[in-house]
Specification:
By secondary structure, the protein is α/β, with parallel strands linked by helices. It is 40% helix and 17% strand. Helix 2 crosses helix 10 (237-248) and helix 5 (122-132) crosses helix 12 (283-291).
């Protein structure tokens, strides 16, 4: 009889157990309307969970958080905070690029971090080059000390596409010779998401120099496309929410150490395309063509 009652109690309590939500804590240095909108959107996707944002300055040390907290870091400052000690809950790291991670981590990948890259995958960008500029063969790439480590991966991704990478270091941004060399010797420029090289201060020089040579710049991000680059792939808020929703359904020990969003779109600058004599960019068709080369997951 006692065992029967225990089984009956478990049956009655099972709905409460199965629908008990997790605490999902998002944190970052900045508390903005954009952050709040993102947190609200995630909460709407996961109504059974307790989804909330706490500014980084209001958090204790990582080791003082509950071990079962699902922790989401929204900026590099939050990553720096989590790196202070190994104790604490595992974390999903958003809005961090490969170069930013290299600056903070080098080749280390702490087991309590899952890095969700914000910069476009190199192979994806190269497939966009191939789709928009099928005659291009030599891809020019400027790199800095912090982005040098990407070159081997870039060359490996270019080889099966029949593309050749011509890379030039750009240690002194006042010296335009590396850029001019690439504009003279290559068919297209590919921008790496390296903020030392690609930033508001260098944008005018890069874009006007490329335009003067009738050269297209692909990437490094959608901001440069708005400013005058030809196109780039990007993952928007909905793409990131889909990734988080899927990962949060898994136990943290199943989270990948590093990951790019599976879903993405293409952003193109039609005015630049016309100026370069390129067909109007059909973002949907371009996205489908680039997606066709994605690895099967």
């Amino acid at each position: 009889m006692r065992q029967w009652r225990r089984c009956l109690l478990l049956v009655l309590l099972w709905p409460l157990v199965s629908f008990a939500g997790s605490e999902i804590l998002l944190t970052g240095a900045q508390d903005s309307s954009g952050v709040r909108d993102f947190v609200q959107a995630l909460g709407e996707r996961r109504p059974k969970d307790q989804v909330h944002f706490v500014p980084l300055a209001q958090l204790p040390a990582p080791g003082q958080l509950k071990a079962d907290t699902r922790l989401i870091l929204l900026d590099p400052e939050a990553l720096d905070w989590r790196l202070r000690e190994p104790a604490g809950p595992p974390a999903l790291v958003l809005r961090i690029s490969r170069v930013q991670a290299q600056q903070r981590l080098g080749g280390l990948r702490p087991p309590y971090l899952s890095l969700l890259w914000s910069d476009p995958p190199l192979a994806r960008q190269l497939r966009l080059v191939q789709y928009l500029l099928p005659q291009a063969r030599r891809v020019g790439v400027l790199y800095g000390e912090q982005s040098r480590f990407l070159l081997d991966e870039l060359r490996q991704a270019a080889h099966p596409l029949g593309l050749e990478i011509d890379a030039q270091p750009w240690p002194d941004l006042r010296d335009n010779r590396p850029l001019q060399t690439l504009l003279k010797d290559t068919d297209v420029l590919l921008g790496l998401d390296d903020p030392q090289l690609y930033n508001p201060k260098t944008a005018k020089n890069l874009l006007l120099s490329a335009y003067a040579r009738q050269m297209a710049l692909i990437g490094p991000n959608v901001g440069f496309v708005r400013a005058g680059a030809l196109a780039s792939t990007l993952s928007d808020q909905n793409d990131w929410l889909a990734v988080l929703d899927r990962l949060l359904d898994q136990p943290p020990d199943k989270w990948p150490r590093a990951h790019y969003p599976e879903h993405f779109s293409v952003s193109g600058n039609q005015q630049v395309a016309r100026a370069l004599g390129i067909e109007p960019i059909d973002a949907g068709a371009a996205g489908q063509a680039v997606s066709a080369g994605e690895p099967i997951r």
